[in-house]
Design goal:
Blueprint (H helix, E strand, L loop, with lengths): L1 E10 L2 E7 L2 E2 L4 E5 L6 H8 L7 E6 L2 E2 L5 H6 E4 L11 H11 L4 H14 L15 H12 L6 E5 L7 H18 L2 E6 L2 H7 L2 E6 L2 E7 H6 L4 E8 L4 H8 L6 E5 L2 E7 L5 H10 L4 E7 L3 H9 L6
Parallel strand pairs: 4-9, 4-10, 7-8, 8-9
Antiparallel strand pairs: 1-2, 1-3, 1-5, 5-6, 10-11, 12-14, 12-15, 13-14
Helix pairs in contact: 3-4, 3-5, 5-6
Bound molecules: adenosine-5'-triphosphate.
Length: 310
């Protein structure tokens, strides 16, 4: 339905987006996952034709949209990272404004406003000024505004950054419903793995402007099918021991988080004997050892050597 072909954007010395080819099929929910600065926002600006690429193409149903973006704009709802609302107007007035921009009026406009307010769960607070809403509620209105013209494709740029858990859950649930129940095609950008795991069928992993892997969640995890992730929880942090364990033969990746050490090892590696032996030498207490199936975070770590939060 919507695809990019070797999309590239250069800003002086920085190649923010580098030969990115992404495809959204009708009804799919696709995740664009990458750390801050990976190029996700720039990619979204290019796909939604808000920015011109240095090279490459964006196609809707096989036709380039760069010279004639009107058709794409009609079917695309974009939820930007920054709140794009009039603070001194109510949610209702904002939606009325955006609806009129899209050419809606009269009964149709009122019906659409009611629908999107219901969708984001703000029908009963529609007359309050946007500036008095929490950040999470403002983001929900942001989504409602992008939905006014009944888009077929919804593109979201980190819509849950910095919001309260209740609004976050509400937003995620709304997006899931739109995709599952209404067949909305979704491109969801985030650096939160668990959101992408929950919402998306397919994932593109971006780092330093490039797509470094893509596939279904299962396909991506299969990158690690020969590996196991072992999570070892200690009673406290032992920096020297953690370093030593991370350097043992066969360890492919080691990361620490507070009192825990996470190791990626080839399947079948006999690690436990050495682990307990070394822990004893450092007088360290192991609270729990847990062998896990790999997560997308582990896949990202394996591909880039970094965690998404680095
Ligand atoms: N207008 C610009 N001028 C110069 N450099 C830019 C511009 N916009 C983005 N960049 C650079 O391009 C790279 C990618 O930025 P981008 O904002 O697309 O990343 P991101 O993955 O969306 O990260 P974030 O989640 O922090 O926004 C960064 O190195 C950034 O500094």
């Amino acid at each position: 339905m919507l695809e990019t072909d070797k999309l590239t954007k250069k800003f002086k010395d920085v190649v923010a987006v580098n030969h990115v080819s992404i495809e959204l099929k009708e009804g799919e929910s696709v995740g664009l996952l990458g750390p801050n600065g990976a190029g996700k926002s720039t990619a979204i600006s290019l796909i939604s034709t808000l920015m011109k690429p240095s090279s490459g193409d964006v196609r809707l149903n096989g036709k380039s949209v760069l010279k004639n973006p009107d058709e794409l704009r009609r079917v695309l709802g974009v939820v930007p990272q920054k709140i794009a609302l009039y603070e001194d107007l109510s949610a209702y007035e904002n939606l009325k404004f955006f609806g009129r921009l899209y050419g809606l009026s009269g009964k149709k406009l009122e019906e659409r406003i009611s629908y999107v307010l219901e969708l984001v769960g703000l029908a009963d607070r529609k007359n309050e000024l946007v500036k008095n809403y929490s950040g999470g509620m403002q983001r929900r209105v942001n989504l409602a505004a992008a939905m006014m013209h009944e888009p077929k494709v919804l593109i979201m740029d980190e819509p849950t950054v910095g919001i309260d858990p209740q609004s976050r859950n509400h937003l995620l649930e709304t997006i899931r419903k739109l995709n599952h129940e209404e067949g909305m095609t979704v491109l969801y950008t985030s650096h939160y793995i668990e959101e992408v795991e929950k919402l998306c069928d397919r994932v593109y992993i971006m780092d330093h402007g490039k797509v470094i892997a893509n596939g279904t969640k299962e396909e991506l995890k299969a990158i690690l099918s020969e590996q196991e992730t072992v999570l070892i929880e200690f009673d406290q942090n032992y920096p020297q021991l953690f370093e030593k364990l991370g350097q043992l033969d066969g360890i492919q990746q080691a990361t620490t988080e507070e009192h825990s050490l996470k190791l990626i090892i080839p399947k079948g590696t006999r690690l436990l004997g050495t682990l307990f032996h070394e822990a004893e030498r450092y007088d360290a207490q192991i609270i729990n050892v847990n062998v896990q199936t790999p997560t997308l975070e582990d896949v990202f770590l394996r591909l880039t050597g970094r965690t998404l939060r680095d």
